[in-house]
Amino acid sequence: MEQTSEGSEATTARRRTPDVACQDCILRRSRIFKPLDDAELSYVAKLKDRQILRPAGARLLGAGPAGGFIYTLHAGWAFRSIRLNDGSRQIVEFLLPGDVFGLHVAMLGNWDYDVTALTPVVLCRLKAPSLDELCTRFPSLNRALIHTLAEDKRRADSRLAVLGRTLGPQRIAYLMLELAERLEEAGELQEDCCDFPLRRRHLADATGLSGTHVNRSLAELRERRLAHVEGGRLTILDRDQLIGFAGYSSLAQRIQRLIL
Description:
It contains nine helices and 13 strands.
């Protein structure tokens, strides 16, 4: 079920925000995203349907028919999650500005996860591109799409290995380093300090730990003088030691991601 289009016209109007033209999008100036030529940018601009503003905690999308749209997170943080049969939730990915979600919908036709706003967010909603058209008219965009999906898969595989084979403090440390590295690439990490709006329940659902174990893990990282979280900010106190403690492997050879 596509959640962002529900409600009356008045509610929809409150959720919308003045559109930023694709040509003026500040995210496109970041070095982490593939520059688009004029033809590619014009194509993406035609796909864009609207921009939508949603508050923290809002359910942006739910599992079910996709409705023919994909989304770019223009501002704020969100997360993808899967609801298990027992009602519990596993967070499988945190989404940062510039991340595109729903690309595989063009192939599968359904959302198989939920997306929830972690902070207030601005979404760009786009009509799902034709894969045949990308292959024939915009091969450079198609290659960037494949590279982006492959990078996301590599990152997810590494995180899954950590979740299955390490203790709570290492899991939390790994997640901290992964998010810090992604934010650093975007220029959002200064002096090993960055925004970190994750609450205990988010850390628990992302790492498979109980709330009590999350608290103990955060306390251990603080006591070891490796990292601490306070007031919605993460401070990495000793990055080299934290990397060794978590067994973290840098994303290193990052490609320029596709932004739509």
